[in-house]
Design goal:
Elements lengths: L10 H15 L11 H8 L3 H13 L3 E4 L3 E4 L7 H20 L4 H12 L1
Antiparallel strand pairs: 1-2
Length: 118
């Protein structure tokens, strides 16, 4: 993920976000197998331990399911857990407050949301 907006994130967090974006956009579909940790590490040029940490986070976030001996697969579409939604809402609210404190207008915030939908 080469997006400058995410350079403050750890490498494993960037990979988690990249995979989540691919799921949301339909590039990765439920049931699709992810490359092995070693294969993914080669593809994205990261240490295998970093990729393993990203895969573990994706499992905790219920984005992937691990089938022992078979690998990691994109989880079936599920409604988001209420706790996860509440946590996201809190983070969103904090981001909006920080943006407003920095002088970002409501129109600019809307424009940013629209950009994310593209």
């Amino acid at each position: 993920m080469d997006d400058a907006r995410f350079t403050h994130l750890a490498y494993y967090e960037r990979l988690v976000l990249q995979i989540k974006q691919q799921v949301v956009s339909g590039v990765l579909r439920p049931g699709e197998k992810l490359p092995s940790v070693r294969e993914m590490a080669k593809q994205v040029r990261l240490n295998p331990n970093t990729v393993a940490k990203a895969y573990k986070q994706l499992e905790l976030d219920q984005v992937v399911i691990v089938r022992p001996g078979l690998g990691s697969f994109i989880a079936a579409d599920q409604p988001p857990a209420a706790a996860a939604v509440a946590q996201l809402r809190q983070r969103f609210d904090e981001a909006v407050v920080a943006a407003r404190a920095a002088g970002v207008t409501t129109a600019q915030l809307r424009a940013w949301l629209e950009e994310e939908q593209e």
